[in-house]
Specification:
single chain, mainly beta, four-stranded antiparallel beta sheet, 11 strands, 60% strand, globular
Amino acid sequence: QVQLVESGGGLVQAGGSLRLSCVASGSFFSIKTMGWYRQAPGKQRELVAATTTGGGTNYVDSVKGRFTISRDGAKNTVYLQMTSLKVEDTAVYYCNADIVSGALRTYWGQGTQVYVSS
């Protein structure tokens, strides 16, 4: 049973920083792309950042220069370092990974709340 477990969310003032972590556990062969999505109240879920096994990264324009995605292959973990947080970054952040476990499948974490106060 493959699981993604996020941690690191919380309440922070605007301008502050948080680091989210997501660990993949269970029985699987390999992890392909890993990423972070977010969903604010009343809005659609959007891709925030993603990273491939080759180290490539992409970001939504609104977080470029402020957020950094990274991964530790040995620990099956992806991180999202968030700096200069804005009120509009408030959302539930979800970890996402394409994992080969028999077949290639997309998995989601349960979500972690990030709340940025003004």
